[in-house]
């Protein structure tokens, strides 16, 4: 499971987008009349990195309205889920061990997190943040991984079942627990922005805010086509096509603690050690939230367990193994 104070590197690139449309993060929407298209752009920081939202629309006023709604939703959700912001609801929960009257979106995402923890038998667990804390401190100050005793102590605080989620309060059952939503919030926010664009009358949309969500097909009438990069971003491992679906990729090398890449930001919640079964995992699902959570979990789990879940949920699942061979296990 992921625990970080840095956003994961984006492991996917868009291939062959050329039509005029609306772009969010990397989003494309085609309009029927391109003769009088107006462009409206916002630049800022979101989800720990630089972000851009550009709307191409025949009605400039409407484009501004859509842009404003998208930015507001993005900022509002980040203010709830961000581990980087001291006043976010997540940070307040981590600091106090509880939060009163949480936002409905916070309740929904925490319940979804627990749902995927149950589905993956705990391989997805947002309460791994104590592990990241001790690994980060140990490598920062000593240049080596934490001791077995330190890992054992941190593991006592890793337990998704010890998060109590209610409409009027979210709380931890154990003092000292803390969570990160970096393994699911990007997907959730991607879904919410995509839904907002659809509600604004925009279709044939590809949204990239850490994870990808495609609505409809490409404006050229073909599936959306993504170029998967290797974990180091030095080469491509192949293409992936999809329609009306989302794609998420997870890799330990995205945020390593050391030069070898053996120690990184993705942990096995059961033993506190880093997940190194594969170099990279990609999941294709109907929602970016599900793809995000499962990509993290499958990086930790045994192949047979992951394949069983992928088939039950009817999601696409592939790995890049340690010999750098791409293996497509299931398809959407």
What's the layout of helices and strands?
Blueprint: E1 12-14, E2 23-24, E3 38-46, E4 49-57, H1 60-81, H2 89-96, E5 98-100, H3 104-119, H4 129-142, H5 148-155, E6 163-165, E7 169-172, H6 185-199, E8 205-208, E9 212-215, E10 224-229, E11 236-242, E12 245-250, E13 280-285, H7 288-300, H8 303-313, E14 316-320, E15 326-330
Antiparallel strand pairs: 1-10, 2-4, 3-4, 5-7, 6-7, 8-9, 9-12, 10-11, 12-13, 13-14, 14-15
Helix pairs in contact: 1-6, 6-7
The CATH architecture name of one domain reads: Orthogonal Bundle
Topology as a string of helices (H) and strands (E): EEEEHHEHHHEEHEEEEEEHHEE
Could you state the CATH homologous superfamily of one domain?
ApbE-like superfamily
**Count of helical stretches:** 8
- Could you say which structural class the secondary elements and strand pairing correspond to? alpha+beta
Main sheet characteristics? 6 strands, antiparallel
The number of strands is 15
The global form is: globular
Indicate the percent of residues in helices.
25-40%
> Uncertain spans, ≥5 residues at pLDDT below 50?
2-24
